[in-house]
Amino acid sequence: MSFTAIIAEDEPILRAQLKTKLTKLWPELKILADVGDGEAALEAIAEYQPTLAFLDIQMPEMTGIEVAKSLSQNRDLKCHIVFVTAFDQYAVEAFDTGAIDYVLKPYSDERLVAAVNRLKERLSAVPAQPQNLEALMQHLAAKLTQGAEKLKWIKANIGSNLRLIPVDDVLFFQSDEKYTLVATKEFDALIKTPIKELLDGLDPEKFWQVHRSTVVNATAIEAVTRDFRGQATVKVKGRKENLTVSRPFSHLFKQM
């Protein structure tokens, strides 16, 4: 049996990565479209009538949850939903309350193989296992709200002044033994908050740890390059630095 799919993910790098990995791990799956927001996802589903829709939970225009809710209310649009999320610490519990499929970020081959196997088994079942989307909505929304308290500002002393730096303006964080560098397009600042503590308050969808001492804003990545040994480095928009990607985090850029 052949299956088709669309992918909805607002980060171009992650969207390309998921498409590449699915093509490799599930070559029989035909990906009909990949889009960057929820409204475009609904349009693609209506146009292509795919078997599957991989929906990022957090997207502009409409979230993945809102797209799924809209689909559940439209009898003409039947599509098996696969939620894409980095919120494994509370989302998976919600998914496990019903017949709901999910893919966790970052997209390692191991995680995707497990997800693909689940999907093949579910889609091939006779009778087909229905998705209980309505039962999921309130549970998942509540869980996401519980974990939604994220950093919005970084407090840094610059000279004699205390400055509030919007987290979205930060291109990367890089720590040494004593301080953490907060790098933006316009200026740098030093804070005493360690990387591990920052990670607890940063949005994992947007800020990726690429080294034990470095966290980069994924939306600011301009290029990823490798040397003759396969060592990856990240170039950030508007900066001269090349940020080293250590081996434990190299899977983030394996297909790039």
Descriptive account of the structure:
The chain is of the alpha/beta class. The protein folds into two domains: 4-146, Response regulator (Rossmann fold, 3-Layer(aba) Sandwich), CATH 3.40.50.2300; 153-253, Beta Barrel (OB fold (Dihydrolipoamide Acetyltransferase, E2P)), CATH 2.40.50. The chain contains seven helices and 15 strands. It has helices at residues 12-25, 38-48, 64-72, 88-95, 109-124, 133-146, 195-201, and strands at 4-8, 30-35, 52-56, 80-85, 101-104, 153-158, 161-166, 172-175, 180-183, 188-191, 207-211, 214-217, 221-226, 232-236, 242-244. The strands form four sheets. Strands 2-1-3-4-5 form a five-stranded parallel sheet, sandwiched between helices. Strands 10-9-8-12-11 form a five-stranded antiparallel sheet, with no helix packed on it. It has a three-stranded antiparallel sheet with strand order 13-14-15, with no helix packed on it.
- Mass-distribution shape: elongated
Q: What's the overall average pLDDT, rounded?
A: 83
Class from helix and strand fractions:
alpha/beta
Question: CATH superfamily membership of the largest domain, which one?
Answer: Response regulator
Main beta sheet: strand number and arrangement? 5 strands, parallel
Q: In the CATH hierarchy, what is the class of the largest domain?
A: Alpha Beta
How large, in whole angstroms, is the Cα Rg? Answer: 20 Å
What is the percentage of strand-forming residues?
Answer: 25-35%
Low-confidence stretches: none
Largest sheet: spatial strand order: 2-1-3-4-5
DSSP E strands, number? 15
Supply the number of structural domains: 2
Q: What's the architecture of the largest domain, going by CATH?
A: 3-Layer(aba) Sandwich
The arrangement of helices and strands along the chain is: EHEHEHEHEHHEEEEEHEEEEE
Helix percent reads: 25-40%
Q: Alpha-carbon distance between the termini?
A: 30 Å
Q: According to CATH, what is the topology of the largest domain?
A: Rossmann fold
Q: What's the number of helices?
A: 7
